[in-house]
Amino acid sequence: MKQYDRFGIAICLLLTVFSVSLFAENRKLLKDTETAEKENFEPEMKNALLQKEVSELTEECQVYEDIDTQIEEVKDQYFSLALELETKIVNGESEKKIAYLTFDDGPYYRSEKFLDVLEEYDVPATFFSLMKCAETGYADEDEFYDSIYRRILSSGHTLGNHTATHKLGSGGVYRSVDAFMDEIVRNRDFIEDRYGYRTVIMRFPGGSATSSKTPDIIPELRKIGYGYVDWNSATGDGGKNQAPEVFRDNVLNNTNGRKILVVLMHDYAQNTLIALPEIIEGLQKQGYIFLPLFYESSMVKK
Ligand SMILES: [Zn+2]
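^ inputs. structure came back:
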C-alpha cells in the first residue's frame, strides 16, 4: 500500500469518526432542544388552558351577576305594574280586586305543603317569617328551615319580617322600643346575610294594636326603611283550632266586596292547609287576583 493511500485511509477513518461523533452530538443537541421545548411548552400550554378556564368562569360569573340585575329589574317592573293596578282599583278605575294572602310565624316543617298548594295554583303570597335557627332555639340545626326560606324567595313570594322571636308577655318583644327594634334588625340581618334578600315590610306580632308602644316603634321602623302591614280578613287559625270549612268561610263569607284584601293565615295550621285550595278558588270566583305584598302597596303603612 502506498504511503498516500494509508494516509488517505487514515483521513477517511478520522473523518468518519468525526462525522459519527458530530452526528451523535447533533442528535444529542437536537434531543436536548426537543426536551427543553417540550418542557417549556407544557407549562405554557397549561397556562393557556388555565387562562381560558379563568376567562370562561369570569364570563359565567358575569352572566350570573347580570341575571341578578335582570331579576331585580323584572321585580321592579312587576311591582310598579302592581302599584299601577292597585291604584286603579282603589280609585274605582278597574273592576278587578286584589287578595294578598299572608302566612305568619313560619317557617314550619308544614310550610313546604303550603308552598306546594300555592305553586299548584300559581298564586304568589307573603310570608311574615321569624328568625328560625339554632340561635333563637327554633331548630337544633341552622339548616333545618333553610330550604323553606330559599323556596319562598325563589318562588316569587314576598318575605316579611315578624320579629326574631315573636315572644309576647313580659320580657317579650314589646318590653321596650329598643328591644323591639333589636328583634326586627336581628331578623332582617339574618335573612339578608343568609339569602341576600333585604326585607322592607313587617307585621307586628299580634298586630299593630297589640302594644301601647306601637306609636313609638313606627318612627323607628321608618328610619330603617320599613313599612308595616295589618290585615282585614282572617281564617281565624291564630285562635282555637276549627274545621277547615270554618276557616274557609271566615274568609269567603266576609270579603264584603272589599277591593283589596289582606288575608291573615298561619302556615302551621293543618286545617288552613286543607282549606287553602277552596279559599283560593272561592276568592278567584269573587273576582280576586293574587299578588305578593310590596313596599309601595297602599296596604303597607309607612
Ligand atoms: Zn304572629
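Residues 104-105, 162, 166, 205 surround zinc ion (CB under 6 Å). Residues 3-90 form the longest helix (88 residues).
thumbs up if we can close this ticket
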